[in-house]
Amino acid sequence: MNQTCAVTMRDHDPGGGHDDAASLLSLEMQGVSRSIRRYLTSTMPESTKVTGGNVHIIMFLAKSEGSDVFQHDIERRFSITRSTASRVLSLMERKGLIVRTSVAADARLKRITLTDAANAIVAELCENAQRMERQLMAGFSEREERQLAEYLKRLRNNVDMAQRSFDAASGSDSATTAYQANTNKEDQ
């Protein structure tokens, strides 16, 4: 392992200096994301029986009620590849959580809607998500919450732009293969 990297990792303190935190920001974000997913899954009411990844899609569809939502909307919203979105949506369809229906103007487009079974658990999922948000933001002022949300959006945009640039330079979308493999494990 590179000596500089080993020292940075060994000396890293999440509450410490800017240089250490910045060098391992992606690891901290990944840890927070996994912790949130684990918490949401473990505190999920028995009656819902859905996984963390499915919860986010269900909540997105519930909030989008009245609007047409297609697979590409899910891909963009959750920063997942086409094949990952297709696989996750197929699993959700088999579980009876969503229905995909063809659009008259273009049979290739499939409108995604929640089933009655999924709609029946939205209130419980929402309550669980709100409890998680309160826990996550404990000790933050409203101003800090807004700043954090803005910083996270900027980080996500920066990563998305870097990925698009890399994909354009390489002439393919194969750059997301490793990301897709990891996402596939987490979305099940």
TrEMBL record:
Q: Name one GO molecular function term.
A: DNA-binding transcription factor activity
* Annotated stretches, region: Disordered: 166-188
Keyword set includes Transcription: yes
Q: Where is the HTH marR-type domain?
A: 22-157
Low complexity: which segments have biased composition? Answer: 166-178
Q: Which SMART domains match?
A: HTH_MARR
Put simply, this protein is called Transcriptional regulator
* UniProt organism field: Bifidobacterium mongoliense DSM 21395
